[in-house]
User: Fold this.
Amino acid sequence: MTQHRIGIDLGGTKIEIAAMSREGALIGRHRVATPPSYDEAIHRLVGLVHAIDQQVGATPSVGVGIPGAISPATGLVKNASSNCLNGHPFDRDLAAALGRPVRVENDANCFTLSEAADGAAAGAPVVFGVIMGTGCGGGIVVHGRVVEGRHRITGEWGHNPLPWPDIAELPGPRCWCGQFNCLETLISGTGLARDCDGPEARDATTIPARAAAGEARAQAALDRHTERLARGLAQIINFLDPDAIVLGGGLSNMAHLYDQVPPLLKRHVFSDVCTTPILRAKHGDSSGVRGAAWLWPLD
Assistant:
């Protein structure tokens, strides 16, 4: 009987790996820098998995979350912010190098699966998970299962336009995907930083403290961000009507979102009431690796 599962969160700058016990405890957790090349990344992952194998005395199942998806048309990675993964059969290459099957899923889907399984939204039938960091991703879990969709892009709300825009918000910033006014360009950490401090800004971490200290520009940026996030989530509620929405990523640590976003939803939700809970992730930055482990059931 398998007692452990291995989860890997393969990000653009770091790799996190851990074994998860039957009880949900993380064992042998390690973080290392992500190598710059594809071959180096495969080699690094194999070494990390073998080290965990030795620690738990078994060869557990391996699940991996990546900042992209495996194309159902080509079997190759697409849309990955870690550019070295794009165009490669990552799941097949890693499985061959390890000599065992692996399951690969989008990192936002892994985050949502973790929080739906035993996190902030445990027990909720339909969960929408949001990651707001450098970019903006999303995932949907229904009755404990990730919804991938025909093209494996389910939950990619960051590349939909800001709903109900004011004239002053049009045409909006150009996104790396080629479109204009994508939510990602406005409600990600990068988007918040640019809105507050100009087009070259990237870091939003100091903005809440600056606003608390009385800086009007920082407070105005936070107010715009909160209102835009509410519009984006209202659109999700209108077509998915989830039982819970869980926020993750660096911006999910901004405490004001959980008080200020829910009242703003009502203006745009097509219902006489809106009681959808907006929840902070229980497992924080461990949700990715936990969700990757959850891709495999225990025997």
